[in-house]
Every structure is written in structure tokens, then in C-alpha cells.
């Protein structure tokens, strides 16, 4: 199969199955394999899907069918079967239409609920309590007409205001569920321009940053999505890295292009992390582990860093990427991993399916016209 088709089918937000006349699977993308259990070379089992395939091959329009998810989590799949690229094959698009039930759903929800509980804990610690202390102290300073006491209070209020602003951003990106921007973004250039924003903090902390690009001479690949939100990710990560670095240190930040992936790697990183002996993999449950373990000084992480971590993860996931950390010989590297392509539209899977179906129809029509031209040329007598 052509690499372009493979890329298209694997990037779908739905499962995709391509079957021949004998209902043998010619190709199934990773998501389709997970949801249906079908494998390349295997046959579609007898049942509703087989009947829909046979009806489609006979030229009949079929209604979407519903089957249980093969992973056994209690969710239901909707499968649309349509004609393939020739008269002898069919294609099916698979999407999940009901949520998991029972223990599977409870298990899936647990990390999110625990993460929310911990997020609320640090908000209470780093927002509510400082605000209450400031309010009480300001009332006392006002009653005593002590203006000198106001300066440190204003500084603490500025810190609380910055955290509140970050929390509002997190709520905005969390509730959107999808990105509406399709900016063309060169991450290497964005990283270098973002450095200008955080350079004053580096100067203040006497920390140097060294940027390296791999491969150095390769044309830059692009990410498509929201430049302003990805810039926010880089700002959050750079600032967190600078705060975690020791004064006088040099921070190594690498840009890598590997096939269809773009990675920004913070070498020997201490951002968003407790002491190295307590490091854990960055995932939906990471905040839980880190709050229980505490930071390197035995204190829980500051709300500023925890909210920044959640914000970065959400933005990167909306672009189809993820954050992760790698531990190598007790050295922790923090990675931003992004795909070079359009961002995931998690709230509109039906649009993704419609686009893929239209692409398949257009490609089938093109191939049919080409076959007609070839047949006509073969049937026409040669000109003298």
C-alpha cells in the first residue's frame, strides 16, 4: 500500500478496515484492530459485519451496524461499511458510540478524579490560604494605617494573581476539547523566538541555555495547530526548567526531527518533578504520585508548576502529541513529542470519518476513470 494512504488511515480518529471480496482483511489501522480484534490476513467472522460486507459488494446500501467493543469494556461500536476502491473490496469506518461500563469505566475515571482532587488540594494550599492570609493582613494594616506592611502583601497577591490567570487558561483549554486554529508552525523557530520571552528569568537566575538541532541541516517540518497555545507550552516548560536549574548551570535543550515526529528534549531536566530518586513516568496519574511523594525538599509541588504541567499536557494532546519523561542512568530527560501534521479534532470524529470517506470516493472515481481510459485506448484501432 502506498505510504500516503498508510499515513492517512493511521491518522484517522476512527478505526479503519479494508476488506476484499472474500471478506479477508487487507488492511486495518491500529485503532480498528484494537476495537474490533481483526488482524490483517484474517477473515471477518460470520455475523452482522459479514452480512453488511456482502450486501455492499452486491451493490446495496447498508445501514451502520453496532457491535460490542472487542476489548470487553462494555462500550458499543458503530461500523459504517462502504464500497472500496474497486468492485471487489469494501471499507469500514469504526467509532465508539457509548462509553465503557462497570469496572472498566470506574477504573478509567479513577486517575482523572484523583488528579482533580490533588489539583484542588494545591489550589487550596497555594491560592485560597495565601489569599485569606493577605486579606486578613491587609485589614490589619488598613486599621493600623501601616503602609509599610502593604508592600510584601502586594507581592504575595501578585503571585496569587499569576496562578489564578494560569488556572483560567487551563480551564479554557480543558473545556475546548478541540483546536480551531490551523497555523503552520515551525517548532524550532518558535522555540528560538520563545527564548526571548524567558531570557530575563535566565539572566536573573544566572542560568545559560544551549539549543541544539538534530539533524542540523534538514528542512524544518511543520506542526499545524495553534501557535499561541504551543508557544504557551514552550514558555511554561522553559520557565519551569529555569526555576529548577541551579544558579550558574547550563541547560541543554534539543530539537529532533524523526520521521513524522518532532521532539523538544530538555536534557537532565528537573522541571515538573520531585527529586530524581522519586521520579515517576509522566502520565494522567503523575500528579498523584508526585503530590504524595513530595518535591525534593519534602514539600508538595507549587500550584504554579502543577497547573502548568496540566496545561502543557492538555495543549500537547490536543495537537495529537504527548509529554513524557525518560530516565537514563538516573538522569531525567523531559520530552515534548508532536506529530508533523494536522491536530487531532477529538470533538468531531464524524467530520474526520466524512473526510476520509470522501477521499476514498474521490480516489475510487479517479481509478475508475483511469480504467475506462485504458480500456478505451486498448479497444481503439491503431492509427496509421
UniProtKB/TrEMBL annotation:
GO terms for molecular function: kinase activity. Keywords: Kinase, Transferase. InterPro entries: HATPase_C_sf, PAS-like_dom_sf. This is Sensor histidine kinase. It comes from Pseudaquabacterium inlustre.
